[in-house]
Design a protein that fits this description.
With about 120 residues, the chain is mostly beta strands. The protein has no helices and 11 strands.
Length: about 120
């Protein structure tokens, strides 16, 4: 059974940083495609960053390039999203998702973690 658990969300001021974590079990992140998505209330889910292993290729949404970094820890089977220079428009629920390969149809999802930038 695949399980993904996100953590690290919270309330920060514009310009500050957060690091989101995604802990995985039931599949090996170092041989998977792990994606961070985000969604605002009433909006569509948006791809934020993606890590394609084992090659290590990374994709980012244009809106976060240069500010966010996706990385993985194979030993712990965790994937991180380092978010710097946060803006109010980054406010959303962030989800970690994983699939066993780039061509796999099934994608597994975590429960999400909320990020709020600004009061």
């Amino acid at each position: 059974q695949v399980q993904l658990v996100e953590s690290g969300g919270g309330l920060v001021e514009p310009g500050e940083s957060l690091r989101l974590s995604c802990a995985g079990s039931g599949l090996t992140f170092s041989h998977s495609v792990v994606t961070w998505y985000r969604q605002v209330a009433g909006g569509e889910r948006e791809l934020v960053a993606r890590l394609i292993s084992p090659l290590g290729d990374r994709d980012y949404a244009d809106s976060v390039k240069g500010r966010f970094t996706i990385s993985g820890d194979g030993a712990k089977n965790w994937v991180y999203l380092q978010m710097n220079s946060l803006k109010p428009e980054d406010t959303a629920v962030y989800y970690c998702a994983a699939r066993r390969s780039i061509d796999a149809r099934e994608e597994y999802w975590g429960q999400g973690t909320r990020v709020t930038v600004g009061s």
